[in-house]
Amino acid sequence: QKEVEQNSGPLSVPEGAIASLNCTYSDRVSQSFFWYRQYSGKSPELIMSIYSNGDKEDGRFTAQLNKASQYVSLLIRDSQPSDSATYLCAVRNYGGSQGNLIFGKGTKLSVKP
Amino acid sequence: KAGVTQTPRYLIKTRGQQVTLSCSPISGHRSVSWYQQTPGQGLQFLFEYFSETQRNKGNFPGRFSGRQFSNSRSEMNVSTLELGDSALYLCASTTDRGYQPQHFGDGTRLSIL
Question: Which of A58, A60, A75, B92 matches a 20 to 30 Å C-alpha distance to B80?
Fold first, then answer.
């Protein structure tokens, strides 16, 4: 059973701080990794994708991937109250019959003003 | 560019009825996936369609079925509705099943009375 694990939280950080969200996955052949943000009552919104080991930065967001450790993380710098949401980690294989996304259950982030 | 469009946004049904949900993918996207989201189970993969063929299927009973038309629009059908089918049903599209991320529609909120 392929699994994606996230700490459910809630993770509470003060405004302006760095929020660190973590995710581990069980399937070593996973090749594509995504972070989605989901506000309450809304659908998931893609914020970052990463495919190679290392860091990928996009504005205040940095995704980090370590395939040897089967670990993906998302850092949010200068956190804002508008970042308060549930963050979903998703993993996707490519090729064969396993092209679907496998989601973690999400980490709820609360940014306090 | 228009996003993924799901209709209807809300549905109320009673046990034993059946329901059909519709999804129009982003223009040019040929892969459509369906997910069920509940508070307890998170986002769970239902099935994926590509070029009118089901390429991948999650672990759901046969009451859940789908199809895709030549214009890539997809429908999902649930027969003999059960109380446990109450959920947010999300459709996501992508260009193919490779490295590209999936983009979600706003979802259909299904409530079973």
Answer: B92
Distance of residue A51 Cα from the nearest chain B Cα, in angstroms: 8
Q: Which of A69, A47, A67, A71 has its CA nearest to residue A58?
A: A47
Sheet holding B74-78, edge to edge: B5-7, B19-24, B74-78, B64-68
Are A51 and B102 in contact (CB < 8 Å)? no
Chain A, chain B: beta-carbon pairs less than 8 Å apart: 57
Tens of pLDDT, residues A20-58: 999 999 988 888 999 999 999 999 999 999 999 999 999
- Report whether A35 contacts A45 (CB < 8 A): no
The partner residue sitting opposite B43, judged by closest CB among A88, A94, A97, is A88
Is the CB of B104 less than 8 angstroms away from the CB of A45? yes
Residues paired with B49 in a beta bridge: B32, B54
